[in-house]
Write a structure and sequence with these properties.
Helices cover about 35% and strands about 45% of the residues. It is of the alpha+beta class. The chain is globular and about 40 Å long. It starts with a helix and ends with a strand.
């Protein structure tokens, strides 16, 4: 067998070995990161959120409003956005090395600019693991009928 034929096989084997080397507890770590986010956001704990949210966060609400990290933290701190409860169901965590994608159905209650909401949503969170742990880099929700 010549070297050219070995390259695709070697690359496939390398990818498989890398994929299998991802720690099995990654899903549990990400689920714990999700719980920390829920706890911090419902408590309006800015210092905890500053550790959880990536500097380049893209936070897309079900209304279509897109906020960066600073805008989102300001909305929470000022009371413009307040979450009373966030409950998950049908949660799936997919890990890709140092990145994880969470898809779930959520029921969120709270207020936006003083107006109450009680929403059923599909939510996607993208997490990235760096030296300080899992950080949320993207959030997007879509309203369910």
């Amino acid at each position: 067998m010549n070297a050219v034929k070995l390259i695709p096989t070697s690359l496939t084997l390398l990818v498989l070995v890398f994929h299998l080397s991802v720690p099995a507890d990654t899903g549990e770590e990400v689920r714990q990161a999700e719980q920390k986010w829920v706890k911090a956001v419902t408590a309006k704990d800015r210092s905890a959120l500053e550790k959880i949210l990536a500097e380049d966060l893209v936070y897309t609400h079900s209304t279509g409003l897109v906020e960066n990290r600073t805008q989102y933290l300001t909305a929470l701190s000022s009371g413009q956005q307040k979450y009373t409860s966030i409950d998950y169901s049908d949660t799936v965590v997919r890990s890709y090395g140092s990145t994880a994608v969470v898809t779930t159905e959520v029921r969120m209650t709270g207020t936006t600019k003083g107006e109450p909401f009680d929403s059923r949503l599909r939510m996607i969170h993208v997490w990235f693991k760096n030296g300080s742990g899992w950080t949320l880099v993207a959030h997007q929700t879509t309203r369910l009928p």
